[in-house]
Design a protein that fits this description.
mainly alpha; MetI-like fold; 14 helices
């Protein structure tokens, strides 16, 4: 008796895993083509450019490691920009983590109208960085700025925030706290995921709110804090728009950072080879710092399903 049509169909659909693999690669192929064409390809080409001299008009001229030698041995402005970048990241990233954790802890309480408060804290992070930068140019204005007017109400003579070399970097740090809402959302989600049984058991043992926060909430939040730390380091070391719009690196390069400096060389000074060398130097620094944080995570990041010996 010949096999029924249903048997053929059953064998076809139950058949091989290679069929599933083929469909997987067909479905993912647009992303693969886009990644190879617009990400990996330009990255590889930028390595060649970092070893070349190119003004965007003439063909690139291979010069070996001269760009890197100049960068690390003769370019004092690069070291100034690198110092400013680390100054900004070292202050802003921990501040983000501390403030976001504190606000998320308060927003996790059961109170009437809490959804409105959560929305209010998250909304500023949705404002485009160009718009928020223009807003803070007005806030930090020496005479007419709202911040100095507020300080004057208490008899305090505020500084010329963006025009004073001693205050300009700290002004950018203050401005960065405007977008703390993204971290708050992640931390709040992590707090909502902490099992109530842990708090109930700690209450039976006589633990107070402070002990519960440091002994239960924070350890359970360490995966989220770890993620926010990594993203904060990467984002902080790549700061560009705020500096470019608010200060242009001034006064006297006091707020100049690596990415705006890279942009100036590549697109304003038409020195794409040197700009590419700057980009790869920054990439190496970010990669090293990220790997160090990953290596340290085993000492302080706790996963609920993990059993440590």
């Amino acid at each position: 008796m010949p096999p029924l049509k249903e048997d053929y169909m059953k064998k076809f659909f139950e058949k091989p895993k290679w069929n599933e693999s083929l469909w997987f690669y067909i479905m993912i192929s647009p992303w693969i083509v886009g990644f190879l064409s617009f990400t990996l390809g330009p990255m590889i080409y930028s390595i060649y450019l970092s070893l070349s001299k190119w003004d965007l008009f003439q063909p690139p001229q291979y010069i070996g490691l001269k760009n890197y030698i100049k960068l690390f041995t003769m370019d004092d402005i690069f070291w100034k920009a690198l110092y400013n970048t680390f100054y900004y990241a070292i202050i802003s990233v921990p501040l983000h983590l501390i403030i976001a954790t504190g606000i998320a802890y308060m927003l996790n309480k059961k109170m009437k109208g809490m959804r409105i408060y959560r929305t209010a804290f998250y909304l500023p992070s949705l404002v485009p960085v160009v718009a928020s930068s223009m807003l803070f140019v007005w806030i930090f204005a020496p005479d007419t700025g709202i911040l100095n007017q507020f300080l004057a109400f208490f008899g305090i003579d505020g500084p010329a925030w963006l025009l004073d070399a001693a205050w300009v970097k700290f002004s950018l740090v203050i401005m960065s706290l405007w977008g703390v809402g993204g971290g708050i959302v992640l931390l709040l989600a992590g707090m909502r995921g902490v099992p109530d049984e842990l708090y109930e058991a700690s209450e039976i043992d006589g633990a107070g709110k402070r002990q519960q926060f440091f002994r239960i909430t924070l350890p359970m939040l360490t995966p989220v804090l770890f993620f926010n730390l990594i993203m904060g380091i990467i984002g902080g070391l790549q700061t560009f728009a705020q500096v470019y719009i608010m200060t242009s690196g001034g006064p006297n390069n006091a707020s100049l950072m690596v990415v705006p400096y890279l942009y100036d060389h590549a697109f304003n000074f038409y020195n794409m080879g040197y700009g590419s060398a700057l980009a790869w130097a920054l990439f190496a620094i970010i990669m090293i710092l990220t790997l160090l944080v990953f290596r340290s995570s085993s000492m302080w990041v706790y996963y609920e399903s993990e059993v440590k010996s």
